[in-house]
């Protein structure tokens, strides 16, 4: 341990064994030990979404295009509740435990559930009230618009369950417990894989619901996962507990000072996807929209991949920053980011080498295959930079320092959206839009690396 940590008022001998391991254990094995259950289950969860896309795609191109339009706002809910605001809860819990404040960690968990419930309900109301004009604004019409609205109304009706479930899971991750949240997600995979086609197409006397059936399967899982995690925490089986009491602004602030800034990053990431989807649709039609949307789903797979490797960095970095060991926190951050780069770059290079193998799973329309192949060939080789930057973003959440990462994300957003809009205005080929996305990803990874190397993560009073 560094001299600064040794001088800290927090003595590791007085801490929980799990917290002490985060302060002392060898870094690379520690990250992999904490990441593997999370990583496996996140990838399984992503695969579940792809399976759902496969079943919906069999309903026709309108259903696939409609689902592609709902995917960005739905992914935004997951990114906010798991990675952004969820990271705020994990970071606050980890920093409290790292500095020996067990009572504050319990209060943070309770305040997180209250806050997330309110946020989830607010987004539900907005989506149900304004979903149709929003998807029409993105260029949807006819059958694609009806499919988008039908799917959106179901998944957003149960949105509050998603948020509360992830508030509880994030509090557990803040203690270093990755297994229980991962186990809940694994249960969701086992549930949704058979339930989604059953509800979409029906079986025997059970009538198929079509596109909304896929959304209903997700809502059922969120309800069951929420109930189990609430029982697990309330029964005293976790290191952190829901300590009820008067609501205090300082606990909300401890979550929001990380979560609010991180949320802006998530919003910008989805804004890029939404804008490029709309530009592709207007430049080349619904088939191109479906092609880019299907191809970019592979980019969204990098988010659970980055989360699987990056989520452990939040409690690890937060605990070490809380204990005053900034140097070890930096080593943890770059070790995790290197793992993320290697994994994502392998995926991107494989997609660039054989894009039709991926796209052909979901459809066979030539225009869809052509647009998706163009995107994957150009953007695939840059995926490692995105995952590298995302992992360092999770590390910055743990440190409670998100001003710089937000500025970097603004730069990436300006490059991707500005380039896409400029290409459309100049009448340039569709591939130039995808090139702007790729340049933005490279900028994101390189800039996040430089920013993290120069950041001051020393604990402040």
Automatic annotation (TrEMBL):
Q: Where in the cell is it found?
A: Cell inner membrane
Could you tell me which Pfam families the record lists for this protein? Answer: MatE
Transmembrane stretches, start-end: 30-51, 63-87, 108-130, 150-172, 179-203, 215-234, 255-280, 300-321, 333-361, 373-394, 406-427, 433-455
| Membrane topology value | Multi-pass membrane protein
Record-linked InterPro entries = MATE_fam, MdtK-like, Membrane_Transporter-Flippase
Please give the Gene Ontology molecular function terms for this protein.
Answer: antiporter activity; xenobiotic transmembrane transporter activity
Provide the alphabetized UniProt keywords.
Cell membrane, Membrane, Transmembrane, Transmembrane helix, Transport
Listed GO CC annotations = plasma membrane
Main location, first listed in the record:
membrane
In Swiss-Prot or TrEMBL terms, this protein is called: MATE family efflux transporter
- To which species is this protein native? Methylopila turkensis
